[in-house]
Structures are given as C-alpha cells and as structure tokens.
Amino acid sequence: MPLFDVYPLYDVTPVRAKGVYVYGHDRKKYLDLYGGHAVISIGHQNPVYNRRLKRQISKIGFYSNAIQNPLQQQLADEIETQSGCKDYQLFMCSSGAEANENALKLASFHTGKSKIVAFKNAFHGRTSAAVAATDTPKIIAPLNAQQEVIFLEFGDEDALADTLAKEDVCAVIVEAIQGVGGLDMPTKSFMKSIETLCKKHKSCFIADEVQSGFGRSGKFFAFQHYDVTPDIIAMAKGMGNGFPVGGIFVHPNIEPWYGMLGTTFGGNHLACQASLAVLEVLKKKSLVEHAAALGAAFEARAKSIQGVTKIKGRGLMLGLEFDFEVGELRKKLIYEHQIFTGGSSNKKLLRILPPLTVQQKHFDRFFNALEQLL
Ligand SMILES: Cc1ncc(COP(=O)(O)O)c(C=O)c1O
Q1: Do residues 140 and 131 touch, judged by C-beta distance below 8 A?
Q2: Is the backbone of residue 125 left (phi > 0), alpha (psi -120 to 50) or beta?
Q3: Contact, 178 vs 121, CB < 8 A?
Q4: 374 residues of the chain, pLDDT tens digit each
Q5: For ligand 1, is residue 213 a contact (CB within 6 Å)?
Q6: Which atom of ligand 1 is nearest to the CA of 212?
Q7: Is the CB of 242 under 6 A from ligand 1?
Q8: Rounded to 5 degrees, what angle do the CA atoms 144, 147, 150 make?
Q9: Cα angle at 248 between 116 and 154, to 5 degrees?
C-alpha cells in the first residue's frame, strides 16, 4: 500500500541520533539545526529523558484520564515554577494543533462568543478552528472555512480596536514570534494592546507558544519578552523533545466544568515523564539562558554573511533572510555539508531551530558551510 503522499521528502533516512547529530543509513552524520521542526529541545537521546521513559514504561505507560495520575500535577507545578506563570491550570493534550483547538474552544465556552481574530502569516495547526485561524488558504478545507475568523495585519492596533469593539470575538490568537510564517515579531505596544483590548471587550488573549515555548526564544515563553499576561497559553513541540505532548495553561478566571474538554491520550504517564525530563534538563543545564546567549552570538556572526538582508527571531528560533530563494541552498547544506535547516512560507528565509544544547562550534560549522556555498 502506498503512503498518502502529502510530504515532499529529502533523501535522508535517519537511523539513530545523539545530541545535535542525526545519523543516516548512508552512514553520514548530519548536524541538526532544524530540531525536527523545533521539537528537539534537550537534544536527541538525552540520558535523563531515556532513563525517565524507560523506568516509566516498565511500570505503567498509559491509562485514561478517568484515574489519578500524580505525574500531571508534578508537571503542572514544575512548568509553573520554571515559567513563573503563577496560578494557571494545566490541561494536557498531544499536539500543537490540539492545544490551540482546545484553547479556542475554551475561549468560546468562556465568552459565549464565536469569532476569532488571527493575524496575517499566522500558523496555528491543521485541525478545525486552528487551521481556520491559519493564514494559508490552501490548507483550509470548505469544512474548516465555516469558522468565523478575521485576519488582521500583524501590528494594526486600530483594526484590532475596531474589530473587538463589535463585542463578538471570543479570542485573539497570536504567536509572539511567528514560526512557519517567517519569524516576524510584534511590537511591545501591539502585544499590550491585545492584552488591554481583550480585557476591555471580554475576549480571550491566547498566546500560541507551540513553537516558541519551553525556552526556545531565550525566555521560558516568548510572550514574556513583552510583559503581558495571556488568558490561555498553548504549548507542545519542545515540551516533549519528540514525545507527542501538548497542553494549555488556563488563567484562573476561566472555570472548568466536567466534560468541558477531554482527551484519551493527553497527559498519559509517558507523556508526563517526557516533559518532566525536558524540564529537569532545561534547569540543570540552564538551557533557557543558553538559548538567549547563543542566539545573540549567532546574530552577531550572521551580519558578515553575504546576501543576508535580515536576521530574524530571537534565542534559538532564528532565521536568515537572503536576497534569493533558499530552497537550493537548503539542499546543498544537507547533501554537500550534512546540515539540516528549516524553511518557512517566506521562501527567502532559512530557519535555524536547533536543539537548545547546540554549541558555538556547531554554528561555526554552519557559517563556514554557508560561506563556502555562497
Ligand atoms: C506556532 C504553531 N502552532 C501550532 C502548530 C501545530 O502544531 P502540531 O503540528 O503539533 O499540530 C505549529 C506547528 O508547526 C506551530 O508552529
């Protein structure tokens, strides 16, 4: 039976991985500056991660959310401590789209309203409301198009004020660094306006931290660069270092009722252990601070690269915009220099989303390869 052919694939078959390296069945060693799309946070085959998962699977790997699972509480407490986001409530699921889907649904339940405000170039996932709030018409099926989503320019405070004044918006959903869209960042004033206007008009402020969360931006969550307090924070990707885990932090103003949200797999024992391992390593190795410092060094070095017109992002969620489309360059980096990088909907942008354990010497190798190719 053929696979349903929806992915254009590179001709690389990883068979094992360690730290920031992925080893192909061609016996080549690839430097992973893509992190499996910003997923690998603490590095491949981290010993703490492996130990926690092995121990857990030898006891109990899964049971439904109908029983007590103290690991969920442990996880909620540890994310609270490390992020500094106090008094939120955690609901767990298994992917980024699911986190946003639950966030949007919750906002609608809480406010009794149904319209969503999202922004130009946003990406929030591929499920019903999440994909409707994604600014890529090609991936929105007629079924998803029934959702009422208003797309505004990223940064247009007047349009946001006018739209929310109609009092029919349940949520404003925003990435504090756009991922797939190409690493654009809002201004402080715009993020403050989202917070203030959502409060004023009883809409929920949803921070989509699926890609930028868990330290990647150089703070635990990227919205923390802006001194704002979202009502709901969606997380996934780096939260599990490859184990499918996602979640939302829900502000104490939003009250739950039995059956309001639910999931079969979310928050299972293995998922909790994967995420607890991530948090243990983030803390032990000060990886959030490391991401901030290394990101700054990357930016300084990138300035000397020929053809770079913009250096985008922050921490280890970075991009180099060139004065040409980078598809061929990415292929050459993989096939001639064994370096994985990422792309985005901006065809001129090369994205760098490495494990947070990446070191300067790895970036030196990347920049040397770039200099040779350019
Ligand atoms: C900001 C953002 N939100 C949501 C998603 C969807 O996550 P998932 O692919 O885990 O459903 C992504 C995936 O790239 C993302 O970057």
Answers
A1: yes
A2: left
A3: yes
A4: 999 999 999 999 999 999 999 999 999 999 999 999 999 999 999 999 999 999 999 999 999 999 999 999 999 999 999 999 999 999 999 999 999 999 999 999 999 999 999 999 999 999 999 999 999 999 999 999 999 999 999 999 999 999 999 999 999 999 999 999 999 999 999 999 999 999 999 999 999 999 999 999 999 999 999 999 999 999 999 999 999 999 999 999 999 999 999 999 999 999 999 999 999 999 999 999 999 999 999 999 999 998 999 999 999 999 999 999 999 999 999 999 999 999 999 999 999 999 999 999 999 999 999 999 99
A5: no
A6: 1
A7: no
A8: 120
A9: 40
Q: Give me ligand 1 centre to Cα 306, in Å.
A: 31
E strands present in the chain = 14-18, 21-24, 29-32, 89-93, 115-119, 149-152, 169-174, 204-208, 232-235, 246-250, 308-314, 317-322, 339-340, 349-352
Ligand 1 lined by 179 (C-beta under 6 Å) = yes
Calpha distance 133→56 (Å, rounded):
37
What DSSP assignment string belongs to 6-26?
-----S--EEEEEBTEEEETT
What domains are defined for the chain?
14-46+288-373 (3.90.1150.10), 48-284 (3.40.640.10)
Give CA–CA dist 288/224, Å, rounded.
12
Q: Rounded distance, CA 51 to CA 229, Å?
A: 35
Nearest atom (ligand 1) to Cα of 122 = 1
Dihedral, 160, 165, 170, 172 alpha carbons, nearest 10: 10
Amino acid in position 316? L
| 210 CB near ligand 1 (under 6 Å) | yes
Give the SS3 label for residue 209: coil
DSSP conformation class of 341: -
Query: Encoding tokens for residue 84?
Result: 């500094």
Mutate to test the pocket of ligand 1, among 119, 123, 131 (most ligand atoms within 8 A of CB): 123
Tokens standing for residue 224: 């923390």
State pTM to two decimals: 0.98
Closest CA to 342 of 123, 64, 80: 123
Distance CA(291)–CA(236), nearest Å, equals: 18
Distance from Cα 202 to the centre of ligand 1, integer Å: 26
